[in-house]
Amino acid sequence: MTFSVFLENLQDQYVNNLPFVAYRNPNETIIKTFLQQDDTLYKTTNFSESGFVFSPFNIKETSVLIPVETSLILEFESETIEEPSINSCTSKVIETFDITVAKQNHIALVEKGIKAIHKGTFEKVVLSRQESITISETNPIKIYKRLLETYPTAYVYVWFHPKVGLWLGATPETLLHIENNQFSTMALAGTQVYKNTIDVVWKDKELEEQQIVTNFIVSNLESQLDNLKISEVETAKAGNLLHLKTHISGRVNSDTSSLKNIIEILHPTPAVCGMPKEEAKQFILENEAYKRDFYTGFLGELNIKKSISRNPNRRNVENNAYTRIKTVSNLFVNLRCMQIQNTEALLYIGGGITKDSNPNLEWEETMAKSVTMKKVLQ
Ligand SMILES: C=C(O[C@H]1C=CC=C(C(=O)O)[C@@H]1O)C(=O)O
């Protein structure tokens, strides 16, 4: 199958108004797609189903599932990936919102967040906004192709359901990866604009903001994991941005640590919500001037059975005896994403607020983050 034929499959599915998702893991070349064969809105009830899950920020709302059983699953192996050079802020899209008003509103929101931190309501809160852009290229498959070409190190997806909407994104953040009982995640936070080097100095504000995420994950999961490993914090590049990242891994230690339990412990992490979780979430739901929907939710493969052969080159009967089945869940946080509605793209961008945040710089940070999607909409 050629790449054009693979993309035509997605295009046909979209034209026929049927649900689908296409996604590529960070630094990988295989693009996988689930083409649902009916237009039912399937939901997960307890994350024990097998399929592709699309969950909102507010977990009390519907988590949509594209089930394995009702889907045609195709894979396409693309050519070797290479990161194209990215200039920051080259977008030439039409902003249909009033930037002055948007700036005032975001600054006022951040100031309110900082006040709540000083009052002791919470230590950190992630505050976000939505930006509307008129686009001339509305074909999601063409936009998806550009995303794939532009962000080889991100998790790049297009997701569509006729009863929910059309979302695309290129996220740098893993929520969790579980293979049988082997677990890994990351604490990703702190942002600066990439200027041709990853050898940069981080301020205390960003270091603290990221440490809050690491501490939250470790303290909430350490009783569930054996052989817990926490990496040194490193600088990671994501498009035109740099973030601080820590890898955390371990072995899920008991049958009671179901996937649902782990998801509920982790989501939403202080990388997208705040600390303490409930207080920050309440503030977000009450104060952000729009509804996050699936932004800062999570998406990805849920309980997918994959076979591992000891020797993949030998396809004889004897070798089949060595084939083992593993169950894999690979979930990503829905960041650097957008929703497309006719000729309008709705971009979602936010940033972590601590006591040391500067509201003007927080606004600038959301502008820098919005470039990730704007770049492919030109
Ligand atoms: C909430 C977002 O980013 C999160 C992930 C990395 C860095 C972040 C930050 O520096 O604030 C955020 O925690 C977003 O991109 O909308």
From TrEMBL:
Q: What is this protein called?
A: Chorismate-binding protein
Q: Which SUPFAM superfamilies match?
A: ADC synthase (SSF56322)
- Domain Chorismate-utilising enzyme C-terminal intervals: 103-369
Which InterPro entries did the record assign? ADC_synthase (IPR005801), Chorismate_C (IPR015890)
